[in-house]
Design a protein that fits this description.
360 residues; mainly beta; 5-stranded antiparallel beta sheet
Amino acid sequence: MRTSTTVVVAGTLLLIAACTKTVVMPQAPRPTPRYRGSRPPPHTPPEPPAEPRERPDDRPSPPPPNLPPPTPPAPPPRAVVRLMIPPDQLPDLGECRVWFPAMPPGLQPRPRTRPCAGIEAIAAPGKWIVYRPREDTRLVHVRILDEQRRGVVIRIRIFDINTQELVREEEPREQRPPLPPREVIPPVQPPPDSTPRERRPPPVQPPRDSTPARPPRDSTPFRPPRDTTPARPPRDTTPAPPPRDTTPREQRPPENKPPDQPPGPSSTMTLDIPPGHLPELGQCRLWIPGRPPGQQPRPKSRSCDGIVGVAPAGSWIIDRPRATPQLVFVRVVDERRAGVLVRIRVFDIDSKRLVREENP
C-alpha cells in the first residue's frame, strides 16, 4: 500500500515537471543618452590590455654552448683615393714636376721632369709636387701645397704606381735620425749602516760662534813701490849726415823694343754651343761645359724664373733676351757654390765671339 502511494506521487511530480516550460524574458536595450548641442560626445579610447607579467618559466633559455658566435656586422666601405695622373706624365726616377689638380694632362705646364732642388719656391699655391724616389720605384710621393702660402707643404700623400691607390699620408716634418741613447749613470749609494734607525743617536751640531771672523793677516813682507817714471834715452852727439840727392836720374830708352803681347783670352773666346741647342727668344736653359750636346740636361728651353736656384755648381745659364735677339748671355755659376753667379759673358750669335763681360 505504501509502495504504490510512493510510485503515484513520483509519477505525478514527473508529469508536472514535464508540462512546465521555462520562459526567458529578453532584456530591454538601454536607452541611448541624449546630449544637448551640436557637438558629438567625446570619444574615449579603449584601454589597452594589461601586459602579462613575466614568469620565470617564460624567460628565453640561453643558447647551447656548441653554437658558433654571431658574425659581427661588416664594416662600412671606405673611400678609395686614387692618383689621377697617367703613367706617361709622371717624372723620371729621382726627379719632380709641378701638377695642377684641376687641369687635364694635355694642358699641364712644362717640363714633365726636372730636378727637385728649388721646385717648391716656383710652384704656385694649391698645386702638387709629384716626386718619384729612387729607393722605391713602386711609390709616388705627392706634396700638396697650401692654398694661400707659397712654397708651404701641408700634406704628403704616397700612392702605389700600379694600382693608383693611396697607401698612406705623412706630415711634412723633417725626419731626423734618432739620437743615440744616453748612458745612465746610477747614483752612488752609501754603504748600508748595520745600526738600526731606531737606535741611531741624533747628530750633534756644534755651537755657533757669534764672534765676527777676522781677516787673516798678510805675511808678505812690505816692499816699496817701484818707480814707473820712463827713463830718458841719452842724447846722440853724432853729427847728422848730409841729405841725399833725390833728383831723379835720366832714363835712357831701351835699345830693343819688347815684343807685342798676345791678346787676352777674352778676345779669342767663342761660344761652342750649336744653334739647335740654344733656347727660344725670351727663355733660358742649363748647359754643362765640357759635356757633349746630346748629354746636356733637359729641357732645351724653359722660363728663366727660378732657374738660378736649381743651377748646379760650375754650370752655365744660357739666356736669349727678346730685346737683343742677336746676342746670347751666358751666366757662369761658381765652381763650388750652386746658384751663385760669378760672371756674365755676352756673345754674338752669328760669329759666336765674345763681345763683353759683365759683373752679375
